[in-house]
Design goal:
single chain, Spore Coat Polysaccharide Biosynthesis Protein SpsA, Chain A, 2 domains, 15 helices, 12 strands, globular
């Protein structure tokens, strides 16, 4: 199905997946993706994978701008009406003024509090289009929340923590990756946090992730790293171990560096009856990125030679150690701690 969004005052449209979080509260949740015409096919494949690995029916939405007719026909066939396709082109055209010059689709998620389709939901999970799920998304949306947002630490930022000064954040402020998020919409709406995020993005001319980190500073809870297992630095944990694998570096439809062959095979299976299949052909007979991973073993020497602080920090980064720390924080429902790079031992 496909709908055109309108900013109107209307009663909630009904209810989606209801589950109980760890406090026993009745939780009404959904998930969504956002894409422009170029990323729309990948959003559809991500959504199809979520449906395939999720036992319970958690309602899903793809908010899109500029999707072509041919891709829309494929999307409807692929998703079989189980994910609602919402055209937000007109809405985003009205509100885009003031945002930095970049793809406006990236800012769609900052308007989740104004999307009529979301009015009925207490919890909303967002995922980027370059994420491949291996676990029921209901396990994510049903988690205990003690903060307005559940998000995963972005260790890449901790290798060069000058972001705190650049973004006017507090000393030691942690930073999250926004590829997979869970919003507690009751708190988000009550505290006008997305409205604040939009104001920050416009006033400071920031991208969406930086603006979210400023607006939600001190208001986010550590997500288990397996829900956003990023591919750009994590070598210790592989696709098969991820609840959701985020191809935050090279893409499965692009250079494929660091993309596991079993993940590529999943993409080919998802796209097998679509015109998008050829984008996921395996380009070489082994996994790309082996040399890159080997190169990181000499980061310490390169860091000293080049006086490169980022490489020095990265050399002391222990993926298994930090994964364990974040997992324990997530399991205890802890808010993100200050100076996570010190806690992880790679400051």
């Amino acid at each position: 199905m496909s709908t055109n969004i309108q900013l109107v005052d209307e009663a909630p449209r009904g209810y989606g997946s209801r589950s109980s979080d760890e406090k026993g509260l009745d939780v009404n949740s959904c998930f969504f993706l956002a894409a422009d015409g170029g990323y729309f096919p990948y959003a559809c494949l991500t959504a199809r994978r979520i449906l395939d690995v999720s036992a319970a029916t958690t309602p899903g939405f793809i908010l899109y701008v500029g999707a072509g007719d041919d891709d829309m026909r494929v999307a409807r066939r692929l998703l079989k009406g189980q994910v609602e396709l919402v055209d937000v082109s007109s809405f985003m055209e009205k509100v885009r003024s003031g945002f930095r010059d970049s793809g406006i689709a990236a800012f769609i998620r900052l308007f989740a509090d104004q999307i009529p389709e979301f009015e009925a939901y207490d919890r909303i999970a967002y995922t980027d289009c370059d994420v491949l799920f291996n676990r029921d998304i209901g396990d994510l949306t049903g988690q205990k929340l003690q903060a307005p947002l559940l998000a995963a630490h972005d260790d890449y930022m901790y290798f060069l923590p000058t972001y705190r000064q650049k973004l006017s954040m507090q000393p030691g402020a942690p930073y999250f990756n926004s590829g997979v998020l869970l919003f507690d919409m009751i708190s988000v709406r009550a505290q006008s946090l997305l409205e604040h995020t939009r104001q920050v993005a416009i006033e400071k001319k920031l991208n969406d992730q930086n603006a979210l980190n400023i607006a939600f500073e001190g208001k986010w809870q550590t997500m288990h790293p397996n829900w956003n297992l990023m591919s750009n630095y994590t070598k210790e944990y592989r696709f098969s171990q991820a609840y959701a694998r985020h191809f935050s570096g090279s893409k499965p439809w692009g250079g494929q560096v660091g993309v596991e062959l079993d993940a590529l095979a999943v993409y080919r299976d998802l796209a097998k009856d679509t015109p998008w299949l050829q984008r996921f052909r395996q380009r070489i007979p082994f996994e790309r990125g082996v040399l890159k991973r080997l190169g990181r073993r000499i980061d310490a020497a390169r860091g000293l030679l080049l006086n490169d602080k980022r490489k020095k920090r990265r050399a002391y980064y222990d993926g298994r150690k930090t994964h364990k720390i974040y997992a324990e924080q997530a399991d205890s429902g802890a808010l993100a701690v200050s100076f996570p790079e010190v806690l992880g031992g790679f400051a």
